[in-house]
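Appendix B: complex inputs.
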Amino acid sequence: MELFEDMTKPSRNQENGLLDPNRLFPVESRARGIAQMLFEEVEQLPIISPHGHTDPSWYAENKAFGNATDLIVKPDHYLLRMLVSQGMSLDDLGIPRNGATSETDPLQIWRLFAEHYHLFRGTPSRMWLDHTFSTLFGLDSPLGADTADQYYETINEQLARPEFLPRALFERFNIEVIATTESALDNLEYHDAILASDWNHRVVTTYRPDSVIDPDFEGFAGNVRKFGELTSSDTTSYSGYLDAHRIRRQYFRKRGATATDHGHPTSRTAALDVSEASALFEKVITGDHTDADAELFRAQMLTEMARISVEDGLVMQIHPGSWRNHSNEIMRDYGRDKGFDIPSPTNYVEALKPLLDEVGLEPNLTLILFTLDETAYSRELAPLAGAYPCLRLGPAWWFYDSPEGMMRYRQLVTETAGFYNTVGFNDDTRAFCSIPARHDMARRVDCAFLADYVARGLLRETEAVELAHDLAYGLAKKAYRL
Amino acid sequence: MELFEDMTKPSRNQENGLLDPNRLFPVESRARGIAQMLFEEVEQLPIISPHGHTDPSWYAENKAFGNATDLIVKPDHYLLRMLVSQGMSLDDLGIPRNGATSETDPLQIWRLFAEHYHLFRGTPSRMWLDHTFSTLFGLDSPLGADTADQYYETINEQLARPEFLPRALFERFNIEVIATTESALDNLEYHDAILASDWNHRVVTTYRPDSVIDPDFEGFAGNVRKFGELTSSDTTSYSGYLDAHRIRRQYFRKRGATATDHGHPTSRTAALDVSEASALFEKVITGDHTDADAELFRAQMLTEMARISVEDGLVMQIHPGSWRNHSNEIMRDYGRDKGFDIPSPTNYVEALKPLLDEVGLEPNLTLILFTLDETAYSRELAPLAGAYPCLRLGPAWWFYDSPEGMMRYRQLVTETAGFYNTVGFNDDTRAFCSIPARHDMARRVDCAFLADYVARGLLRETEAVELAHDLAYGLAKKAYRL
Amino acid sequence: MELFEDMTKPSRNQENGLLDPNRLFPVESRARGIAQMLFEEVEQLPIISPHGHTDPSWYAENKAFGNATDLIVKPDHYLLRMLVSQGMSLDDLGIPRNGATSETDPLQIWRLFAEHYHLFRGTPSRMWLDHTFSTLFGLDSPLGADTADQYYETINEQLARPEFLPRALFERFNIEVIATTESALDNLEYHDAILASDWNHRVVTTYRPDSVIDPDFEGFAGNVRKFGELTSSDTTSYSGYLDAHRIRRQYFRKRGATATDHGHPTSRTAALDVSEASALFEKVITGDHTDADAELFRAQMLTEMARISVEDGLVMQIHPGSWRNHSNEIMRDYGRDKGFDIPSPTNYVEALKPLLDEVGLEPNLTLILFTLDETAYSRELAPLAGAYPCLRLGPAWWFYDSPEGMMRYRQLVTETAGFYNTVGFNDDTRAFCSIPARHDMARRVDCAFLADYVARGLLRETEAVELAHDLAYGLAKKAYRL
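Resulting structure:
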């Protein structure tokens, strides 16, 4: 009976508050009932966050977050890009132009955001924000021009309280372990500070060597020189350079790292012989290289990183296919990460073959693949991950970390790769407050997917319960060796 | 109670007439109820038709349409292609071969069409036709071999009546404004005639300069010469040629044009400097050019058109990616537009970059993108339109102007670009009688999409009502500056 | 009332047995009811299997199948690939390395498979297997570590009985006609034996000439020599070589063949003139050719095969786009068909143009296209098949021969190509016991698709009944001229 009542009076909950308790579940009542049952099983599981971009200084220093605008609007490229797409300028939004300090009043920026909140209808940002507003800040009327100031005051007032300090939120969010991402050149001082502190929660780093691998990275040659100093290695030779990676990976492992991450423009790999690779290294390190050399060096280094992963057991992640900073003018005036990164078609079958022929059958290697090209899910990624033992598929990424995106991912991947060649959820965010909202969304969508399969006789309920646990918790922990 | 009755006795309406009153709505009763409510809000809104191919002489001359075959079958490439794909010849269908007059009896053609009407099951053509048969001509038993003659007589008899003249239909269809599409060389006499008449309804033109921009267009050099004469410009120089565009666009603007349209094979753009562009123009105008030159000239001209749009405020549309007249034999014997235009993979991220770096952040530019490559929706188009302020996404086009196609469009676009970077519906048709059917379909599919989002807690009902209005009416009017 | 009871107590059936009687049907009760009605209409129709890979010796010799492991696990690359992807080796699974005999105990392999049966959750393999276990072997508790031995014994015990001999199963499966696939060099002795026997069931062959068409095929030159001997043709000249095809196709036609099949890496076609083609043939036959020559020869031969099909009426099938044996190590150690064939992006619009300009409008040609690149469904394949009279679309193939895959196929293809440019279902399998399961799945998914269209007012029930018959039986029989 309760189910039926849910169905006939749904709008009451929904119109009176920000969150429908049955959000993202199937509409049909029997499937919805199954989804509710599955979600109850996993809703309270601890959060495993094996890949993300929160700032470790938050946990090390435990200082209060600033105001609503600085916490929620300005660092979120999802919000900036949508507002810019509808005619606001980055200046209006307080983003410094050419490094000059922006003096825009944060309350004015908040009001501008609130007035345009309808633009986010149908986007995951809207769902994450409403979840944060409702569950974290206790707000229950929709954000808009009329509620902008009330929101601003309520959020700021709460951010000043002790229970809103980063460590308190970490505990409240029920995070079992979170991974941050640091440059290979980072000294990891905040991770050291966390480890040395009496706060016993698990924050691990991730080895991200793009700045010393990508010849197109700003300051590449200097970075490699510094890399040599940090590791006491001779990074003027290829073998010394590879040793520097080995040494630095150990440094990261000691700060909890279980994984590396690689943000290349493509997923191309190569398997040059030592003399070819050494000659190529000589070119890129002296700056005497073409675009094709740079691409080949990145390709060669993916294979080298995979080989070292076989040795040291770090899980490898590849996040390819983003055309970073597509607008020259935005890049020139405002810099990186302002919402102008655009996906491109990405090939995996040809691109990964050199690496896979080298180490694709190694039992100790885990290589997690991501994509911004959804056409690769069923055509390339699921077939590859459903065959090569080293491969696993990362969750729906970036623009597809969304209800429709996650549902497409399951529909396109599962029949060929199954569930056990996937690795659970990544929140992949620097928006700390959105972490519970993101895991909530992912768990709900997975439960909706499983409920539909149960309702259509493709899975038994007992199997779906086990899978719901695995997708929400177990697979991430296992794949990332946490 | 009424809802429940609808659900238990659905086939009664459906089997007795041509149209299910709940067609295209979600099946589940609560979501269906929401869709019904939303559709009631928008069903009677006037039609905004900002892009299409109806013939302005119809409205200018207001002559009766001919018989059912000439009105419905022969001009509709959707119908011709399907019948040909199943073994009929274009001769059988009355299409003149090599310009010779076809002597096929229109009633015979109608009978052939009616006998094969089952081929259209599951296609949008079938829905548009049934809507037209039912709501316009009052027919209520299915078209087939047994009803062919009755249909033919009923339609022809009605077409002869005054209430079936073009202007009467325009009013009956509740069209607020319709845009036609004319070549840059067209003298727009029919638009002048409409403006000069006492019939006070809004028919506007659209500037389509393919014939003077595309070096591969039949008679290109002569077209450019005529273009110079029409505008009193020296179209032997690049600057004179660009001036001719400026002048001719003003001529179109005075006949109501608010937009331009560009049907290029690809979406490639370029930003050559003046001397390079002038040299290229010299090549293409003298016919001394390669295929690559022609492609580069088209690319350069998209950027020039965008620059002039910044000046004169005409909204720019790009319809790329059709391989026109794919069959040599069909083209040779029967000519263009006979259903053998086939989509091709289309890239936008790289192709549009030159234009976007020139004018992508201009506040006065609106550039509406279309695609025949659905893989670009979530990978390229939504990310681009969700960032660049000049970009908007045109509705699902051509083969995808269909229930499944429109639903995929919303599912793939909304989470990244939202609703407000889309521009409502285009009927894009030369089939005048199908216009109400096409808008009916689009409104129903959008209401179904919104209803599902409400039912799953992703939108509030009040928001969905506002969105339903915007998608059916407001966005088209605003985006096209009508 | 019965419908409603089904809906409220669904898990009873499902948890107590392996098969939900409503599996794959829509969840909502009205649509489910329509799907049930449609499925009742087609469930008992005979099986038409126009394309597959069962072994004709089974029907000719009628010997008992071996044990469960040899019948079900070892020959099924879907199973091998998933188990390998999760860390098992092909050695563990009894696959001979470097041709050496495997000494692995089949019961041990069966146990390994059973312990890992959860890996197949959500895959079509799981549904096919459960259907086989339940309907063929009468098993009704789930396969797992605890039931492995019971399964093994039950299956083996039954396989030894007369009613499990190949001919008995053929009759029990209600197969009206099955096509096998043989190399152009095969002597078709088993087909002769079947024809000569008193067993009056229809097993036909299919002409698969890859080994004498693809210059990259192992032993190509020798194959062509043997081809000449078999046909008493001079296969050292191009015209003699083409004659050999004509003669051999007749040999196959006499053993029931109605179709040819071509498994090229791409769908590229060519229309060289005779002297060019002869020169190219000279190159490839002497081994003095580049990769590009080999690709061009395969392309030319697709057009030649189409021309001969116009003469002899054999239906032509193209299965392009698989990157065969992607892992060098697996290929070297275990050989072909071990689950490491990976799809690649495939173009059809440009690739097929030469062939289509030659014979695309021929009334006597049927050319059935398949794809492993789902992006081609709506962008290329449906638009092509919805125009060219020779083209038909094969069903969802290989990785997409699955519930989600088949549903996507209908959703992406139908609106442009309709139902009548498709050809029903292919089981395309060497797993004999899975044939009823595969047709069951396809019929259910098609009924679910049609039911949804009826429930949403896009089709009338009477039309859906007719379509369900056509999709399950009529279209395959007609398209393959069986």
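Residues 64-164 of chain B form a domain with the uronate isomerase, domain 2, chain A fold (CATH 1.10.2020.10).
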